[in-house]
Amino acid sequence: MKQYKIAVVGATGVVGQMMRKVLEEKRLPVSEYVFFASKKSAGKKIIFMNKEYEVRELKEDSFDEKFDFALFSAGGETSKKYSPIASKSGCIVIDNSSAFRMEKDVPLVVPEVNIEDAKNNNGIIANPNCSTIQAVVALKPLDDKYKIKRIVYSTYQAVSGAGKYGINDLQNGIKHFEKNDKYQLEKFKYEIFNNCLPQIDVFLDNGYTKEEEKMINETKKILHRPDLKITATAVRVPVMNSHSESINVEFEKSFEEKELIQTLKNSKGVIVQEDITHEIYPIATKATGTDEVYVGRIRRDYSLDNGLNMWVVADNLRKGAASNAIQIMEYLMEQ
Amino acid sequence: MKQYKIAVVGATGVVGQMMRKVLEEKRLPVSEYVFFASKKSAGKKIIFMNKEYEVRELKEDSFDEKFDFALFSAGGETSKKYSPIASKSGCIVIDNSSAFRMEKDVPLVVPEVNIEDAKNNNGIIANPNCSTIQAVVALKPLDDKYKIKRIVYSTYQAVSGAGKYGINDLQNGIKHFEKNDKYQLEKFKYEIFNNCLPQIDVFLDNGYTKEEEKMINETKKILHRPDLKITATAVRVPVMNSHSESINVEFEKSFEEKELIQTLKNSKGVIVQEDITHEIYPIATKATGTDEVYVGRIRRDYSLDNGLNMWVVADNLRKGAASNAIQIMEYLMEQ
């Protein structure tokens, strides 16, 4: 069996840490792991699979020693600069940043939805935005069966998606609650503790945020439905981890609720949590630590002929980032 | 000038406390206040306008001494039993419970929207659901100008709307975060701390919660638009006070964004907070303590011909409950 050589770029960030955790769990056929980070984190010692590794500084010659795969999660600028170098060296880059996602020759892949797209890569495969990944895992089987016409997204996104400083802002808010004193915000413009902030990423000229635009454009690309009508409101909530989403869908075809729920139950990567008698539905704390997408509050939207509401929750660091990227790599290893 | 005699029923609850606070601020032409509560809270001493009052037990003969107005916020069962007794005694009841809201001969009133309806009362006027009040204040001027066709609500509702035990659950979650130990939930089925719970009030057979049904039905009644198409997802979030709402609207008529924003700016009770250059938009902590409805993130929904997204925030205990009820009473005093 072939053994692969893997580079993890951005190994010390919040997603990088989760990459290491998921890789430890998966025990893939890997002969060597090398962990890269920025100059600031280089030299740091990490324990991985009971072995000590020194984090190396990412440099232009880092890929001269041949890798099979490089998992990038070091931000858009780093990806833009180093992904082409890595792919030119013969390694396949799976990039968690938004740098290449909308480029025509870069597949944007969620394994449960469009894994076949991963084959047609020119050395770079993009991992989608966290809030898009969990949405399309739930939407794809429904699109196949009932053909989606329009989607209205409203998200409830955890601070872990904003990285270490986002997590710090919420933790500091919690710690200072009883003292009722001031603390310095590290990431957000306003307190995320005790607030819902209707801004994720920067604003675009059309009034949408970049996060909202990502959800709109990436959903179309992953589902191969450039004609889809989509709108989105992306909101940060005071939750540590796992994103929740209120998704309103209009289908072209009519549906029976029972059949639709059964379709979701039969879908790969989906766990249906729908039991109003026992007040069971997906929640963030229960999704955390898992790779599945949880779907509940599944009910007909009576304001439309073929309308549906549902509530979709997943671990944004795992399925929304690290696990999805590693699932893509696993697929390519098996090919 | 006429001086009125006022009963506050449910004076010790979370909304009752806010009623007292708003009444203290307003200094209305009132000769006497009497505070009622259940047997459990009766006898409790409260300070109101620098004077000590003893809370009285609500009984069937409580309204034998004639009141001009009774502000009820003691839950549906108490309202059902005592509101008819109070109104029969000649007093006008303004009821914060859901008991009478959808009854044909009971006006459901938001002063900025349909204050004229308050005149046609048979002794009981209903105060709408908190999440509906703030929505219709923002929607009414837009309905007048562009005629609403369909609304998709997704809410981000604070724990203060769930009363004292709801607040306790969040506070206990915060206090126990650092110790990472267990605590007893008093109100919610699951931890609200660190979670978004897609359930407010009980489930109905159709899969919707009662809160979602309230938003749908009450919006139609207040706007006098029984034909409106509406769907809703109501979610509790780990925020102490002030509800936020992601509202997606489809209009019959076309609109210009600038003119629409100007329409909202000119509307009574609305404050527009819309400045993406400076990252200004409504947030819960800034709405708390005020009676206005804050509207921002106002932008065209490109997935529809005449679509709009907006983000609406208000203090659910003030505008969503106490202040709205007292504004209705003020109007009737002026008549």
Concise synopsis of the structure shown:
The structure is a homodimer of 335-residue chains. Chain A is built from nine helices and 14 strands.
Keywords:
globular, 335 residues, 9 helices, Dihydrodipicolinate Reductase, domain 2, homodimer, Rossmann fold, alpha/beta
Explain what this protein looks like in three dimensions.
The structure is a homodimer of 335-residue chains. Chain A is 31% helix and 23% strand. Chain A is of the alpha/beta class and 335 residues long. The first copy, chain A, has 2 domains: 4-127 and 321-334, NAD(P)-binding Rossmann-like Domain (Rossmann fold, 3-Layer(aba) Sandwich), CATH 3.40.50; 132-316, Dihydrodipicolinate Reductase, domain 2 (2-Layer Sandwich). In chain A, the strands form 3 sheets. A 6-stranded parallel beta sheet of chain A has the order 5-2-1-6-7-8, sandwiched between helices. A 6-stranded mixed beta sheet of chain A has the order 10-9-11-14-13-12. A two-stranded antiparallel ribbon of chain A has the order 3-4. In chain A, helix 1 crosses helix 9 (318-334), helix 4 runs parallel beside helix 6 (210-222) and helix 4 (130-146) crosses helix 9 (318-334). The two termini of chain A are 12 Å apart. The relative contact order of chain A is 0.15.
